[in-house]
Amino acid sequence: MSEPQTTAKIRLHSSKGTIDVELWAREIPKTSRWVIQAAAANGFKDTEFWGASEETVQFAEQLRPAQSKPEIHSRLRFNRRGLVGVRHGADGGLFMTLGPAPALTGKATVLGRIVGDGNYVVAAIGAADLTNGRFTYPTKISKSEALVEFFEDIVPETSKAESDLLESPMPVTKTTTTKKPKVVVSFDDEEDDSDVGLDIRMQSAHELLSDRGMISSKLQSPSPGSEVPSLADSVETANGSSQSDVEPMRAKRTRSASSDSAPEKRRSKTKEERDLETLEMLKAFQSRAKSRWLDDVDTSEKE
């Protein structure tokens, strides 16, 4: 009589090797559910193959089936090695057969069969030394898992760390960005030693003249033949320009005045020429102010 097809599978990891067990979950539903749930929850961890006889190897002494009577199936018998069974009652427990055990048929539940190299692992475990029916150095089971559960309501093992991770919210990691220091450039004549930054502020020619009191409250028209001071003279004189910077401008104005003395060549400057002269003056002023500021920075760094 052939055995029915298996429908579930568990795996036991021992110190001597891995043992795969296929279960007849359809034919033996109650006991199979109990064993599959124990394997899925890693219930065989830290249990041992603790004893042996001529026919069987006992293991997982701590696990006892809930039902007191065995589940019997007409096509399942302890007629060969490599079968897994369960004893019920006070002396109940799990075991694996090392050979035919006909005396156990009808008294214990035929649960499953060992497949693959697990038969050799069980044979090596059964060959170990015994002391009063118990192994002197028992083989320990380090892990169990359910590979094919068959039943839909099997709950797998969830470690405490995984449970805490599922229950607690995920921590929010804050990304810190390093702020770069702001550099502000200042071209003011009066520098404040307490300010680390530099401040760049642009002013028009009219504001510069107004700040230095170069424009009077009442403007008087020049008399005929008198020389009108240009914008470059006013700003450069207000900012303390050096004599070397002012001389070319004065020479230029002298040549312009001599050429304009003749009535037929006398003309006034256009707006574009005045604006160009103002821009040249501002560029020269900014260059000198920046050079003065760089000198002060070098001096402070050396100190």
TrEMBL record:
Gene3D superfamilies: Cyclophilin-like
Keyword Isomerase: no
Domain PPIase cyclophilin-type: 12-143
Biased composition (Polar residues): 236-245
An MF annotation (GO) of this entry: peptidyl-prolyl cis-trans isomerase activity
Record's keyword terms, sorted: Nucleus
Record bears the keyword Nucleus: yes
Chief localisation class: nucleus
InterPro entries: Cyclophilin-like_dom_sf, Cyclophilin-type_PPIase_dom, Cyclophilin_A-like
Catalytic reaction equation(s): [protein]-peptidylproline (omega=180) = [protein]-peptidylproline (omega=0)
Superkingdom of origin organism: Eukaryota
Pfam families membership: Pro_isomerase (PF00160)
Family per record: Belongs to the cyclophilin-type PPIase family. CWC27 subfamily.
Protein name, entry field: PPIase cyclophilin-type domain-containing protein
